[in-house]
Write a structure and sequence with these properties.
Number of helices: 11
Number of domains: 1
CATH topology: Rossmann fold
Largest sheet: 6 strands, parallel
Shape: globular
Distance between the termini: 9 Å
Length: 243
């Protein structure tokens, strides 16, 4: 099923932000079957539980990809599946979302902690703030943030908090090094949540994967410029193999 691409969304905003990208990819190549799958609805903060759920429900031998948290989960699942994953695409996905001494190109731990506390006390307000952060750096940031929020699913606060804990716990450095299939990682130059420096840090870690930094785009570049992103993905897929 090397002609099949599964895309996973980011935290809190559902599958809608990825639909224009999926449509653009289908338009470029009708033979490519693109599916956007929702993240698990779990109260567990253990990434292994989320990966078990995804592994049980997503088809084998497909390309795996995702935006932000979805990309991190796709990376971990790709490494778990090994030769049963055709390849990996990540979009605005850091290797660690929260900074630590060994990976400074990430969100400050104090900022993340305050964000999580906000989600625990007022999840709707925090989701609105998150949409604004996702859109920061776009030409029409407020319009893009409204678009992100408009189709966000109603998810229990406990699930949102569990997702944040998974986001903070995931570290894909080892799994990206372990996965031997083709990899494409795209970053946004004006991303307010994943610093552009993460692209260079990834290149220093893995010199033999494809990495792209797109200037003047926000964290939500999948929705901001779906056709440009689709063209980059399509070019990479056909560079690797004729799907």
């Amino acid at each position: 099923m090397r002609d099949r691409l599964i895309l996973l969304p980011g935290w809190g905003l559902g599958t809608a932000p990825l639909q224009p990208l999926a449509e653009a990819l289908r338009g470029l190549d009708p033979r490519l079957h693109v599916e956007v799958e929702a993240l698990p609805i779990l109260n567990s903060s253990d990434p292994a539980d989320w990966l078990d759920e995804l592994d049980a429900n997503l088809p084998q031998d497909a390309w795996l990809g995702g935006w932000s948290l979805g990309g991190m989960l796709a990376a971990a699942l790709a490494a778990r599946r090994g030769e049963h994953c055709s390849g990996l695409l990540t979009l605005a996905s850091n290797l660690r979302f929260v900074a630590e001494p060994g990976w400074p190109a990430a969100l400050e731990a104090s900022t993340f902690s305050a964000f999580r506390q906000g989600c625990a006390s007022n999840a709707p307000a925090t989701l609105k703030r998150f949409a604004l952060l996702c859109a920061q750096g776009a030409d029409d940031a407020r319009g893009l943030s409204r678009q992100l929020l408009a189709a966000a699913p109603q998810v229990p606060a406990s699930v949102l908090l569990a997702g944040l804990d998974v986001l903070a716990a995931l570290d894909t450095r080892a799994v990206l090094q372990a996965f031997v299939g083709p990899q494409l990682h795209l970053f946004g130059g004006a991303d307010a949540l994943v610093p552009a420096a993460a692209a260079q840090a990834l290149l220093a870690l893995l010199a033999d994967v494809e990495i792209g930094l797109i200037d003047q785009v926000s964290h939500a570049f999948v929705l901001q410029r779906p056709h440009e992103i689709a063209a980059a993905i399509h070019g990479f897929l056909h560079e690797v193999e004729d799907v």
